[in-house]
Amino acid sequence: MKQQSNLARLLSYAGSFRYLAIVSWGLSALSALFALVPFWYLWRIIEEVLSVAPNFQSAQGLTHYGWMAVLFAALSLIIYVAGLMCSHIAAFRIATNIRSTAMHHIVTLPLGFMDSFGSGKMRKIVNESSAATETYLAHQLPDKAGAIATPLGLLVLLFSFDWRLGLLSLIPVVLAFLIMASMTGAKMRQKMAEYQNALDDMSNEAVEYVRGIPVVKTFGQTVFSFKRFKGAIDNYSKWVIAYTKQLRLPMLFYTAAINGVFVFLIAAGLFFTRDGVTSAFLTDLIFYIIITPVISITLTKIMFQSENAMIVDDALQRIDSIMKIEPLPEVREPASLRDASVEIQDVSFRYDDEKEALHHVFMHIDSGETVALVGPSGGGKTTLANLISRFFDVKSGRILLGGIDVRNIPKEQLMNTVSFVFQDSRLIKTSILENVRLAKPDASREEVLQALRAAQCMDIIEKLPHGIDTVIGGNGVYLSGGEQQRIAIARIMLKDSPIVILDEATAFADPDNEIRVQEAFARLAKGKTVIMIAHRLSTVVNADRIFVLCDGEIIQSGTHEELMAEKGLYHTMWSNYQTSVQWKVGKEQAI
To answer: How far apart are CA 324 and CA 316, in angstroms?
Structure first.
């Protein structure tokens, strides 16, 4: 099957606006041809001036030729602007449709996709790749049509007056074209991909660095502690410098070639006039000296259009890297869940080519039971929670909710069944009312207030200037991490799903907020199946069961008392936790 060209692919996003793009190319080509006509009238002016010299008063057509040159120059400009208007309208529509199509596809992808792909890289692809197509369609393609029409018109002009001078004018053009081909071939395409990769890496690491600024301030670290970000900047710098040096000589020769046409014309002038100068030859020579810079401009346009074409090709490949990711299989028929139980049956999972994050895990959580997942970092706790929420699909085994495989539960029903409270909850820039309503768009104002009361948020609401109608992030209104967490819990309470997953939900809470968050959790957990992920072991002491994960396997399970009696990993973790707490208390007392 023949692969669709980039231009055809871009036009497929245009709909009925594709005709505006096509019209813009025709108008640009016509404008380029009209732009050459004033040169012909200029030749007529030079011819008449030289023919009547030194009796210039006898020249009859100078005014007419001058105004005709102005007329065609003005027509060329008007037609070009009209073409740009058409191309911009089409380009904006295509860029919008690309973004819209990409975003509609992204929302169908697994919820864990963004974490693995990288938000900085994703934003750059969706925004900048589509913007690259916009510039290409709005400017480069119309200019390309003009750049194709210009040489055709130039060929007619170059050979209309003196074919010898015309032929000599093309020699530097051929040389420049050969040099340009060496800079814009397959090797250049590969270099352009490397350049965009370096930009992607730097953008991604920049986002992670900005997110980590609170840690830098807390521990007094410098930017150099972020080795990956600094490494991305260093790699980009090395690549750009090396690439610039590599193109230095070819670009030097190219510039010399396109600007060297005067050398050939002057040499030809000296040779052809060795027996004397005629008025006709002098007229032609002056005309060729005037018009040949157009050749240089046209060639430079073609060179940059070749580069921009490669940028667009790379941009489309990056968009394809998202579009080719298959969404999770979906079912349409609602599933009949018998209860809010969770069952993990021989589940194994790995991220891409990494080692297994989970290895043959078995777990059963009864409806209404509160369990905790603890263990060393990287043990698989968050991965297991993500699989229960179907952020990813298991590689082997299966996960059942209420006796039904999560893969057989429609996405909306699954999202209504499982709620997830992240360790770093985010609120969007809108009112608290609308932030909470995200969980249930048709909820009344009173229902939102009840959820906020249950989540221990009324002290937050009372200090805000407009209560629940206060816009977060507007007019300097911001909430602390713990306060944002409580608003997020109110959102989950309003949603009222039977299964709740808490992933390090008190990680960023200060002592006062942590007490209120724990009270909110207690209300939230009533009558629900709760799965807690925690590093602060004091928060899981009262759990019905505790599962200890290490290296992707469950190595212990039981109540706090049972696990303490086993003298295993949990006992060691508890002892270390108590030691750290005592050390902190002792340090504070000393201060």
So the answer is: 12
